[in-house]
Design a protein that fits this description.
Elements (H helix, E strand, L loop, with lengths): L3 E4 L4 H14 L4 E5 L4 H5 L2 E4 L5 H10 L4 E4 L5 H6 L1 H22 L2 E3 L2 E2 L23 H20 L3 E2 L1 E3 L1 E3 L12 H11 L2 E4 L7 E5 H13 L11 E2 L3 E3 L1 H9 L6 E4 L3 H9 L7 H7 L7 H14 L3
Parallel strand pairs: 1-2, 1-4, 2-3, 4-5, 5-7, 6-8, 8-12, 9-11, 10-14
Antiparallel strand pairs: 11-13
This protein binds 2-amino-3-ketobutyric acid (AKB).
2-amino-3-ketobutyric acid (AKB) binds next to loops.
């Protein structure tokens, strides 16, 4: 049985992953940590306040609960990272470096996500391969590439069992994302239901990879549980479920809400970030090395998102 510590447990991925792991591994085997908390996280299992910049607290929480796996999610996303690049570097790299040291000392396995942001405008644009040129233009992307390299370094040098995926934009009805470039693909569902109207901050024709949260959570669990000897790559695997531009997602929503009015109000900063990312990435290595698979495409995700948001009273 695993004993898992999650950082960033109150965030977009963390909040849902915490409940999934509590039900799969048992409430006493999952320690949620974050600098901020929600009643959901605190009331339903183990929770400790943790600033990932504080390595001593991190190590003492990991020791207190005798964890063998750390899932490190605390990180600043792309658009917000551009508002304060120095802080993005400090938090994303400082937090990861602390987690790696704790994993090395306590012999823990580590999962930490990378992103499609680890690619740049001179990476191949379509079906971007697993191993290719990575020269991102955002601070978030810079920290993701540096993080991939640092995780590989700890694996090769210290035998820390590090694993990661390059997530596309993640879409969920539970916790909203904070400060990403792909956030429009979440906002659009809320606005379609609330106001029957949405203006996209990403321009027409801009394709980006996306994934529905249940598939993202399954991918984390599947990679953590994958046979180490089968992993040729580690940090980090390309994974994706779908790719679309704003018109395609709005047309899908219009099938269920015909009166939905969709337009554009492009934000130049987030648009230029989106343009520097791939149109689509190639997940073949993840499929071959640990059986990556998805259940949701754009149409199935849209039905589920609208249904679940309605149940939430949106
Ligand atoms: C963002 O938009 O910053 C994130 C990501 C693709 O990593 N959703």
């Amino acid at each position: 049985m695993k004993k898992v510590l999650i950082t960033g447990a109150s965030g977009q991925i963390g909040s849902e992953l915490t409940s999934k792991l509590r039900s799969e591994y048992g409430v006493d085997n999952v320690v949620a940590t974050d600098i901020r908390s929600t009643s959901e996280i605190i009331n339903n299992g183990l929770f400790e306040t943790l600033d990932v910049m504080d390595i001593n607290s991190m190590a003492s929480i990991a020791k207190k609960y005798n964890v063998d796996t750390i899932i490190h999610l605390a990180s600043l996303l792309s658009a917000i990272g551009e508002q304060n690049p120095q802080f993005a570097w400090k938090l994303n790299m400082g937090g990861l470096s602390n987690v790696l040291e704790v994993c090395k000392e306590l012999n823990c396995k580590l999962f930490t996500p990378s992103s499609i942001a680890a690619f740049g405008s001179n990476s191949p644009k379509n079906l971007t391969p697993q191993d290719t040129l990575q020269r991102p233009s955002t601070m978030y992307g810079v920290t993701k590439v540096a993080g991939e390299l640092l995780c590989d370094y700890y694996f090769n040098k210290f035998k820390v069992d590090t694993r990661g995926v390059r997530f596309p934009g993640l879409i969920s009805y539970v916790t909203p994302p904070g400060g990403g470039t792909t956030d429009y693909a979440v906002d659009i569902y809320y606005e379609a239901l609330k106001n029957k109207k949405y203006d996209s901050f990403i321009a027409k024709g801009t394709q980006m990879d996306m994934m529905y949260m249940p598939d993202a959570l399954d991918a984390i669990v599947d990679l953590i549980e994958a046979d180490s000897s089968k992993l040729i790559h580690r940090n980090a695997f390309n994974i994706t479920a779908m790719n679309f531009d704003p018109d395609e997602i709005s047309n899908e929503i219009k099938k269920h809400i015909p009166e939905f009015e969709f337009g554009y109000n492009v934000d130049p900063i987030r648009q230029s970030i989106a343009e520097s990312w791939p149109n689509s990435i190639d997940p073949t290595c993840a499929i071959n090395e640990w059986g990556f698979k998805v259940n949701y495409d754009l149409s199935k995700m849209t039905i589920d998102m609208l249904e679940k948001l309605k149940i939430k009273g949106i």
